[in-house]
UniProtKB/TrEMBL annotation:
Organism: Chryseobacterium gilvum
One Pfam family recorded for the sequence: FdtA
Entry-linked InterPro entries: QdtA_cupin_dom, RmlC-like_jellyroll, RmlC_Cupin_sf
Taxonomic lineage from the root: Bacteria, Pseudomonadati, Bacteroidota, Flavobacteriia, Flavobacteriales
Protein name: FdtA/QdtA family cupin domain-containing protein
Top-level taxonomic group: Bacteria
Domain (Sugar 3,4-ketoisomerase QdtA cupin): residue spans on this chain: 7-135
Length: 138
C-alpha cells in the first residue's frame, strides 16, 4: 500500500493536567498506532541547519517537539506539505514511503522521535531519484 502526505497527520496527545506540571503519556498500540521499537531525539541543531532528506520503506514515526519548534517538509513524490511542530502534546505521524526534510529549528529545540522498527540502513531511501522510482514502481 502506498501512502500519501494526506496520511501524515498531526495527532493531539492526551494531557494530564496538574498544578505542579502536565504529563503526556504515549502507549504502544493505544494512542500510538504501532509498537515503539526505538526512541531517539535530535538536539543542539545549529541555526539554519536542515535534517532528514530521506524516506523509509517500512518505518512509521511519531515525532514530537519536546521543546521549541521546527518544521517538517513531507513529500509523496507528487505533493508536498509543511507541518510546524511547537507543542509537546502534538505528534506528527509519518507513514512509510514519505520523503521528509526538517528545517527552522528554534534555539534549544528537541525533536523526539518514536519509531516502529529498530534502526536498519536497508529501510532508508537516501537518494531522491531512488525515492521517486520507488513511488512510481513500488
Amino acid at each position: 500500500m502506498q501512502f500519501s502526505i494526506d496520511d501524515c497527520k498531526v495527532v493531539e496527545l492526551p494531557i494530564v493536567h496538574n498544578a505542579s506540571g502536565n504529563i503526556t503519556v504515549m502507549e504502544n498500540n493505544m494512542n500510538i498506532p504501532f509498537a515503539i521499537r526505538r526512541i531517539y531525539y535530535l538536539y543542539d541543531v545549529p541555526m539554519g541547519a536542515e535534517r532528514g532528506g530521506h524516506a523509509h520503506y517500512e518505518l512509521q514515526q511519531y515525532v514530537v517537539a519536546a521543546s521549541g519548534s521546527f518544521t517538517f517538509i513531507l513529500d509523496d513524490g507528487e505533493n508536498k506539505k509543511e507541518v510546524f511542530l511547537n507543542h509537546p502534546n502534538k505528534a506528527l505521524h509519518i507513514v512509510p514511503g514519505i520523503w521528509r526534510e526538517m528545517k527552522d529549528f528554534s534555539s534549544g529545540s528537541i525533536c523526539l522521535v518514536f519509531a516502529s522498527i529498530e534502526y536498519a540502513e536497508s529501510d532508508y531511501i537516501r537518494e531522491y531519484n531512488q525515492f521517486l522510482n520507488f513511488r512510481k514502481n513500488g
